[in-house]
Design goal:
With 177 residues, this protein is an alpha+beta fold. The chain is built from seven helices and five strands.
Length: 177
């Protein structure tokens, strides 16, 4: 018996899974883009969230494919627990980066301020009144009134009180610099 004949059913199931995942990826990317453009989110942030979705779908596909080709739940549990233990130890030192990425994703879907808005961050140690120049995966780029560029971590943006001073103030802010 030929090798391809013995795993023909697995190949068919793989084809169906890949087509399904590609369809899900297309629908989610379309939805993310539609929601983001409706809310005035810039293209760089749209691409970032789409990349996160693609990676998540890839990991789900690898897990499903492992089951299709005969991996047992016990085997996968050992592999994933080992991987998560190593990742947990490795990522413990960089938890703030993960916090900023998670905050960036939250801010993508639910953030009342846009690029160009002038905001005031109510921080007792370092109060900031600035124009949002860019919103990235880890931090915001804020332009102060004196022209200085400040990078502000996404996780702090969700923890501090923020006031909208002026909507779409980027033109006035650039002229003042």
């Amino acid at each position: 018996m030929n090798f391809f004949e013995t795993i023909q059913e697995e190949f068919i199931a793989t084809g169906i899974i890949l087509l399904s995942i590609l369809a899900i990826r297309f629908v989610t990317h379309f939805t993310i883009t539609k929601v983001a453009r409706k809310n005035g989110i810039n293209e760089a942030r749209i691409g970032l969230v789409r990349r996160y979705v693609t990676v998540a779908l890839f990991l789900i596909t690898v897990l499903i494919e492992a089951f299709i080709f005969g991996a047992k739940l016990e085997d996968l549990a050992v592999i994933f627990s080992s991987i998560f233990a190593i990742l947990g130890i490795a990522l413990f030192a960089i938890w703030s980066i993960l916090s900023n990425i998670t905050s960036g994703i939250i801010m993508f879907f639910n953030f009342p301020y846009k690029v160009g808005d002038k905001i005031e961050i109510h921080d007792k140690d370092f109060p900031i009144k600035a124009i949002i120049e860019d919103i990235r995966a880890f931090q915001l780029h804020l332009r102060l009134d004196n022209g200085d560029l400040v990078t502000y971590p996404n996780n702090l943006m969700l923890q501090k009180a923020v006031t909208l001073v002026e909507k779409d103030a980027i033109d006035e802010g650039i002229d003042a610099i």
